[in-house]
Amino acid sequence: MTFTTKHYMGDPHFGHMAMLRFQPKTRPFSSFEEMDQAIIERTKERVRKDDLLFILGDFAFSKDDEYVRHCFHELPGRKVLILGNHDLDRDGSVRKVIAKLPWYQPPTHAMSTKEDGGFVWLSHYGHRVWPGSHKGSFHFYGHSHNNLPPTGRSRDVGVDVPDMGLGPRTFAELIKNMVGSDASYLDEVEALTQEVAGILPSDPHFSLAVSPAYFSILQEALRQINDLIVRADVVGNFEITNVMVHDGQLYIRPRYRDYPAHLISMQQEIADIIGFAEAQADEIHWKENGDD
Ligand SMILES: [Fe+2]
């Protein structure tokens, strides 16, 4: 089996004259034909015949069906369309000229594809969460023309984003500068995983005994840790999985799952939160607890 390179780009808007006005910085051309030719040239430079080319929506906006077909056939690679608003008729059906193009697979509203670094969720619109987002999957979107900033492992791959260079990019190129995708984080991940594992034992025989008065303090600490993790786009989720009353005390069992694939260093912040909670709730203590 030969290795197939995948390339991604959104929003070419072939034949869409108004794009010259909307995106003057990235499309400094005097006609849409020039604009389209530039996108086609960039694509030809980067994509080989058997490569997969994922187009993340808004392929074309033109009444000239022949011209739309021309642009399609000028593009190299096996082409996959993730549908954008401009690819649909008002009733939501795929525009006829688009539907009839020889796509490598039928156009779809969203899909997942596999890359070396994990799964990538592709859709025209940027999502806040997506399949596998809490397990390290990536998300590429279009539609926003560089107006929706990247967050964590999601980013705009429209051709109007500066590092797209008006053409498609590979997964490795796309994630290069994304928060948390840098390989240098991995050491920090390991260190922090150890740190957090020390704070919140994942051993099912551990739980936390805390008097009811302090339950909310600890709950708040866990919530803050969770917030930190979400802000840092760390794969992980602390949760209280078990609460019970025994001998007048609340027993809660904080656990974390899927922790973590990568993250920025935040050991000090976590230590501060735990320290604050402990200072307020000196009755909080860890204890080995096999009797529940
Ligand atoms: Fe769009």
Brief write-up:
The protein is of the alpha/beta class. It is built from eight helices and twelve strands.
Largest sheet: 4 strands, mixed
Query: What is the CATH class name of the largest domain?
Result: Alpha Beta
Ligands (ions, cofactors included): fe (ii) ion
- Structurally, the number of domains stands at 2
**Strand runs, count:** 12
Instruction: State which percent range the strand residues make up.
Output: 15-25%
Summarize the amount of helix as a percent range.
25-40%
Q: What does this protein look like?
A:
This protein is of the alpha/beta class. It folds into 2 domains: 6-175, Metallo-dependent phosphatases (Purple Acid Phosphatase, chain A, domain 2, 4-Layer Sandwich); 185-288, 2-Layer Sandwich (Alpha-Beta Plaits), CATH 3.30.70. Helices cover 30% and strands 21% of the residues. It contains 8 helices and 12 strands. It has helices spanning 19-22, 32-46, 65-74, 96-99, 171-175, 185-199, 212-231, 267-280, and strands spanning 6-9, 52-55, 78-81, 110-115, 118-123, 138-141, 154-156, 169-170, 206-210, 237-246, 249-257, 285-288. The strands form 3 sheets. A 4-stranded mixed sheet has the order 3-2-1-8. A 4-stranded mixed sheet has the order 4-5-6-7, with no helix packed on it. Helix 7 packs antiparallel against helix 8 (267-280). The protein is globular. It starts with 5 loop residues before the first strand and ends with a strand. Mean pLDDT is 75; it is low at 180-207, 232-245, 248-267 and 281-292. Fe (ii) ion (FE2) binds at residues 57-58, 84-86, 124, 143.
